[in-house]
Specification:
Strand content: 15-25%
CATH architecture: 3-Layer(aba) Sandwich
Order of helices and strands: HEEEHEHHEHEHEHEH
Helix content: 25-40%
CATH class: Alpha Beta
Largest sheet: 8 strands, mixed
CATH topology: Rossmann fold
Structural class: alpha/beta
Shape: globular
Length: about 260
């Protein structure tokens, strides 16, 4: 599966590498040369293929479609892609990655620490001053949870974002993520950060109620917007139309550093 994402990145001059972050090795893709704008946008992968069904956990959580990497590759600024713990590992490595990291503890303390550490490495490599975090689905949780620990995040964009996993598990009728932190619990901490949250009109995986539950934890003056996109569901058609959607979000939030 890594070969497939290598083939996506290579024509764009992006190179894959492994970051030692906390207790995990995380796969990242980034340009071979940075523009050095001072701003870096990091695209945080979603949950991947965590479950085969409501009752059967997947043996390998690696995402199958490359959607988030495709979005990162279409970003016109300095950008990088960041995979999640246990993604893209070979069989031997995967055997050493506990399944709780793609099930009940997928947003747990160790995972958040790893994403935070990886952001430090990417920021240093890019020579960036400010970060903009983009999270797809469960990656939205980690974008918010890490932003709450940092002072260099200039904007947050989420796509079909699971921003309150307690509300989400209740609405989906699935097991509570008892080993995970919850973005909704730190909403007040990030209320000052400009945010745009994209929602698909036909999304039956993450509904408006999940995003609304997160937003209600903020003040009414928080610079956060929800954009519901007609005809879109959880998967379609974010990557295909990402440049236009990103331009809208950037205009709403203001350019990084403004």
């Amino acid at each position: 599966m890594k070969a497939a994402v290598d083939s996506l990145a290579r024509p764009h001059g992006w190179i894959g590498s492994w970051l030692e972050a906390g207790r995990f090795s995380l796969l990242t893709y980034a340009p071979s040369a940075w523009r050095g704008t001072g701003d870096l946008t990091v695209y945080i992968e979603g949950d991947g293929r965590s479950w085969i069904s409501r009752t059967e956990l997947a043996a390998d959580p690696t995402p199958r479609n490359g959607r988030v990497l495709k979005m990162a590759l279409r970003d016109p600024g300095d950008a990088a892609y960041l995979a999640r713990p246990c993604h893209y590992l070979d069989a031997t490595e995967l055997a050493g990655c506990h399944r709780r990291y793609w099930s009940l503890a997928r947003y747990g303390e160790e995972v958040v620490e790893a994403i935070d550490a990886a952001l430090d490495i990417l920021k240093r490599r890019a020579g960036a001053i400010r970060l903009r975090l983009v999270g797809f689905s469960g990656g939205a949780q980690l974008a918010v949870l890490t932003a709450a620990r940092r002072n260099d995040v200039a904007g947050i964009i989420t796509i079909a974002g699971n921003l309150d996993h307690r509300r989400w598990t209740a609405s989906q009728g699935v097991s509570a993520l008892t080993g995970s932190l919850n973005a909704a619990d730190v909403a007040s901490v990030v209320r000052h950060i400009p945010q745009v949250h994209f929602l698909g009109e036909r999304d039956t995986t993450v509904g408006r109620d999940v995003i609304a539950s997160y937003l209600t934890r903020m003040s009414e003056t928080s610079p956060s917007r929800v954009i519901e996109v007609p005809g879109y569901d959880h998967g379609c058609c974010w990557a295909e139309n990402w440049p236009g959607l990103l331009a809208v979000a950037t205009k709403m939030m203001g350019a990084p550093g403004e």
